[in-house]
Amino acid sequence: MSPAEASAAEGEEPVRGPVRPGGLLDVLGMASVVLDAKGRIVLWSPQAEELFGYPAHEALGQYAARLMVDERHIELVGKLFSDVMRTGQSWAGGFPIRHKDGTTHVVEFRNMRLMDDNGDVFALGLAADQSTVRRLEQDVALSERIVKQSPIGLAVLDTDLRFVSVNPAMERMNGVPAAEHVGRTIREVLPSLDADTLESAYLRVLRTGEPVIDESAVGRTPADPDEEHIWSVSVYRLEDALTNVLGVAASVVDITEAFRAGVEAENARRRLAVIADASARIGTTLDLDRTARELADVAVPELADVASVELLDAVVEARPHSTLGPAEPALIRALAVRAEQEADAVQAADTPGTVARYAPDRLITECVRTGEAVVVRQVKDEDLPRIAASPEAAVLLGRAGVHSYLAVPLIARGEVLGALDLKRTRNPASFDDDDLLLARELAARAAVQIDNARWYQNARTTALTLQRSLLPTHPRVTNGLEVASRYQPAGETVEVGGDWFDVIPLDGGRTALVVGDVMGSGINAAATMGRLRTATNTLASLGLDPAVLLEHLDKTTSGLDHSIATCVYAVHDPQLRQCRIANAGHLPPARVRPGRPPELLDLPTGVPLGVGGVPFATTTVDFEPGDELVFYTDGLVETRSHSLDERLDALLDLLDDPGRPLEEACDLLLRELHHPDNHDDVALLIARALELA
User: Fold this and answer.
1) Span between the terminal Cα atoms of the chain, in Å
2) Is the dihedral of CA 135, 137, 142, 144 positive or negative?
3) If pLDDT is split at 50, 70 and 90, which confidence band does 593 have?
4) What is the fold of 24-134?
5) Is the C or the N end of the chain the one with fewer CB within 10 Å?
6) Phi, psi angle pair for 472, to nearest 5°
């Protein structure tokens, strides 16, 4: 059954109706004239009336030469007429005729001899305006030339969707000669194409007359049987001048290269978008674990379904290490794992923070040993043990459906730090060259951020360890004082500072209380703090007046590489129930007394240590049993969004309960006052006077 018959069987209107005359002769305006043997007009068509201007009743019976030909041409016309009638040979050509209105037109003639059943001879003349004939000839020649030389494949199919003709470009495109197209359907000529979809579109065009523009077709042809191509197909219904449906015309353009270029451009755009996203999201802090999580978050799901960031354990711990040998295992520490609904794959991955031993034959070991990417485009069962850390993990990866694997090294400043481990489970595509390029770019950018974070973390850990080792430990109760203290470094991504406190027992039952802050951060600030604390302890043992002690400490600070520090030094005398206090550019302590509102002590501010040349002053304040002194550094109260006065008022508001346990008071102040946007460390010291036994 033909497509047209199938269409009709399904209840649609048939694409072919009754055969009607074509319109080409109407376009030509072909006139018919019959002359008898003497040259008189015996038949005269309506088209002849239009072409020559004479109605039938004026033309019939007249000698044609005298009616239509100029006198100059009568002799020639007579000879041509005589030759046709005598020999029977047809004559064709253009000849000037005289119109009834007196104008002259060149008419294209076809003359031939006729004979009736009585043996009488007649002459038949078929005539058309020569300019109309030439125009049609030019149109036909142009169309034929365009069709033959067009680089676009062109085909005409009849109403049964059988090929009528194809141009040379279509021959080359299909790899089938034109003669083998004619009379055959699309599926017969090109069995590897989706003929149902194409024929459905062609039938729709035949039925509705609406063209189909740029319909995509995918498949293989005998011209290139090993490579799949993509074509853009446009289909139009063919009708004659009288709207008879003749069939369809199809134009076909091979867009395979353009499609591939578009895919490559889209992949490039996608890579740029992912890289731009990575630049914005990776390395927002100097926290190593967070930076690794940011890398994994960018990779999933854009690049992989499962991503893990793995670093060599020696790199994380900043231990000296050399390049792995071929037989050496790798100690790998997982920093981050990210997956999209892949429970088995996550379970198979190493838990972040743990260290796993990968055998020399593992792919991730090969990646960090060679510093080269490792790709398994199609993962088979025998590949899983080389991907997973253990046989149990290999089973889980198989259950998760891992079908493609990619590991790229994380290299920064010439050192292999670890690897970005990528797996695909849900994404049906295997890792290709574009994915490898993108993964390498991501790894290269992220490795620098990871390297910065791990060096910063190591330096910060060293500085924090040094600072904590320099801070004192003190008994909870000493010489008539109950004391509580806190040191809190700034956020995990900020360097430690030079804040310190001290509780120093003195002769005569007295106690020195010290809080200070070295300007700057890092190891240098922590080291300066340690030297100032040692100097303070030494000077305090001499029993110096607080102002005199600060003067000596100022000289010491001036010799420490232009260091500057603030400090409050107080000496508590339980016998006199007093505190003698001197201030070197530090925030004033707060005094809390039962039955009275908390207050900031009104002390001469003084200048910071290290400035030099300005004397300090000692102030004596009452300090009765039950009273509290609160010493703190600026990291507790300063913020970017509030004034210092507002923050100091908030401090006093929190000191509304003199009976609150000191440990609870320390926790409360840190919790309520240490603002997240204040990237500074905090030293806090609270002392409460006790009744002497």
Assistant:
1) 118
2) positive
3) very high
4) Beta-Lactamase (3.30.450)
5) C
6) -80, 160
